[in-house]
């Protein structure tokens, strides 16, 4: 079958299941009830929240420092370091490379570093977002997505997720380690940032944080920096645009809600025999290709994670207690299993009843990362500094909004139903 005909068949199949979903009155009713409950729970948690404050004076100082940087930068200047500094640079590079083997190792590195330096808000945010990246990677080899994507498509999506995950770690982790070493020595070492290829955007931010210890502008700056860092290197890369971002599957992610980021904040035995109480907070990113939307999405996640006590305490406890493996059984063992209990069947049979497994149904397969994908060598990014204009980044430092609705436990259940329905429809369309 040629690609043109295959694409038409793919669209017809998805058109069918989409029509089926929209035609189900029960789905619309369940969604409305779940949405109302989510908004009520979000309102209750917001009432207890202590919103993070973005200091106008801190932002003004940063804008001034960035402007002075552009006025004084000498492109011909050569940076040199002494032997002690060179040894530290090599040590940080080696530690970063060792932890950058795969999603599990980097997620764990963020976690360990956060609990050593809890003043670095971004480290916990990065840990939780990286967990989601791992779950998305293993989904590609899990229960459902192999029905929706062929092996070549799944590999392309994995490479996209892995490259973005690895490049952000490669850029950000040395910055965190350099701060930790500065704290240990009691003196700023941020003049070493250029040794790691870090954007000139970050030097004034770290220097101000060293003086003021205000985590909010630092965290926002790291969000801004990392999204710009992957913009040309991954998001705008021709291979990923053709094989991932411009595919029908990626276009339907918003409908399937596969592009959501979830933070478990409640987990454990529920009421009734065999019940399990899972509570999820999170947000759905509508347009991944849009860098402004990705940055604002990251800011809202940060405002939710560190501004809402119930979310912070639950997510922090989860991070401390549950080892990241890449399997969704990490947070929902009542729904997912790391090991198949039966060999894969040629015909998929419906297993969900609402957001729960049907009585007697096998758990959904969600492998650990090590069982799903081999470690991938990091493709070294092209050098260069994305930071060219203070005006371009200033809007990101105007406000830090709290999302209005972020309790998504019921919406997550609807997402699972959507994906299963898609699998059933594809299976029917292939008969």
Written account of the structure:
The structure is a single chain. The protein has one domain (3-40, 51-429). Helix content is 59%, strand content 6%. It has helices spanning 3-22, 25-47, 56-72, 83-99, 103-116, 121-139, 145-148, 151-185, 202-212, 215-235, 238-245, 248-251, 253-256, 291-307, 309-321, 369-372, 390-393, 409-429; strands spanning 260-269, 276-284, 336-337, 352-353, 356-357, 364-365. Strands 1-2 form a two-stranded antiparallel sheet. The longest helix is centred in the middle third of the chain and has 35 residues, at 151-185. 37% of the residues are buried. The mean pLDDT is 88.
In brief:
By secondary structure, the protein is mostly helical. Helices cover 59% and strands 6% of the residues. It has one domain (3-40, 51-429).
Count of all domains: 1
Question: Which residue ranges are poorly predicted, with pLDDT under 50 across at least 5 consecutive positions?
Answer: none
Q: Helical percent range?
A: 55-70%
Strand coverage percent? 5-15%
Dominant shape: globular
Instruction: List SSEs in N-to-C order.
Output: HHHHHHHHHHHHHEEHHEEEEHHH
How much is the average pLDDT?
Answer: 88
- Helix/strand class: mainly alpha
- Total strand count, please? 6
Write the layout of secondary structure elements.
Blueprint: H1 3-22, H2 25-47, H3 56-72, H4 83-99, H5 103-116, H6 121-139, H7 145-148, H8 151-185, H9 202-212, H10 215-235, H11 238-245, H12 248-251, H13 253-256, E1 260-269, E2 276-284, H14 291-307, H15 309-321, E3 336-337, E4 352-353, E5 356-357, E6 364-365, H16 369-372, H17 390-393, H18 409-429
Parallel strand pairs: 3-6
Antiparallel strand pairs: 1-2, 4-5
């Amino acid at each position: 079958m040629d690609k043109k005909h295959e694409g038409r068949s793919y669209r017809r199949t998805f058109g069918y299941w989409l029509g089926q979903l929209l035609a189900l009155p029960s789905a619309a009713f369940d969604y409305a009830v779940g949405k109302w409950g989510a908004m009520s729970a979000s309102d209750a948690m917001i009432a207890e929240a202590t919103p993070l404050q973005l200091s106008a004076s801190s932002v003004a100082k940063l804008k001034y420092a960035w402007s002075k940087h552009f006025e004084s930068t000498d492109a011909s200047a050569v940076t040199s370091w002494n032997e002690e500094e060179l040894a530290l640079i090599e040590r940080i590079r080696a530690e970063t490379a060792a932890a950058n083997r795969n999603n599990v190792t980097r997620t764990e590195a963020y976690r360990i570093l956060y609990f050593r330096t809890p003043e670095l808000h971004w480290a916990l945010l990065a840990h939780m977002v990286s967990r989601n990246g791992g779950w998305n990677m293993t989904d590609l080899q899990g229960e459902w997505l192999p029905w929706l994507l062929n092996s070549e498509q799944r590999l392309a999506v994995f490479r996209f997720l892995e490259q973005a995950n690895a490049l952000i770690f490669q850029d950000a982790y040395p910055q965190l380690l350099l701060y930790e070493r500065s704290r240990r020595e009691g003196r700023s070492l941020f003049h070493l940032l250029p040794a790691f290829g870090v954007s000139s955007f970050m030097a004034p931010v770290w220097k101000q944080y060293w003086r003021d210890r205000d985590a909010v502008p630092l965290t926002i700056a790291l969000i801004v920096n990392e999204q710009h860092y992957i913009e040309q290197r991954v998001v705008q890369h021709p291979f990923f645009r053709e094989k991932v971002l411009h595919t029908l599957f990626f276009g339907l992610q918003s409908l399937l809600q596969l592009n959501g980021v979830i933070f478990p904040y409640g987990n454990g035995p529920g009421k009734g025999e065999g019940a399990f109480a899972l509570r999820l907070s999170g947000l759905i990113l509508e347009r991944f290709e849009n860098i402004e939307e990705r940055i604002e999405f990251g800011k809202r996640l940060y405002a939710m994670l560190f501004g809402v006590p119930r979310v912070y305490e639950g997510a922090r406890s989860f991070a401390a207690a549950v080892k990241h493996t890449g399997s969704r059984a990490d947070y929902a063992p009542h729904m997912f299993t790391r090991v198949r209990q039966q060999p894969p069947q040629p015909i998929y049979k419906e297993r969900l009843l609402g957001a729960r497994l049907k009585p007697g149904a096998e758990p959904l397969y969600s492998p650990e990362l090590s069982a799903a994908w081999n470690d991938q060598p990091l493709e070294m990014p092209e050098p260069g500094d994305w930071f060219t204009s203070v005006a371009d980044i200033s809007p990101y430092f105007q406000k830090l909004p709290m999302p209005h609705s972020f309790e998504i436990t019921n919406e997550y259940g609807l997402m699972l139903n959507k994906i299963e329905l898609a699998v059933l429809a594809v299976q029917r369309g292939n008969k």
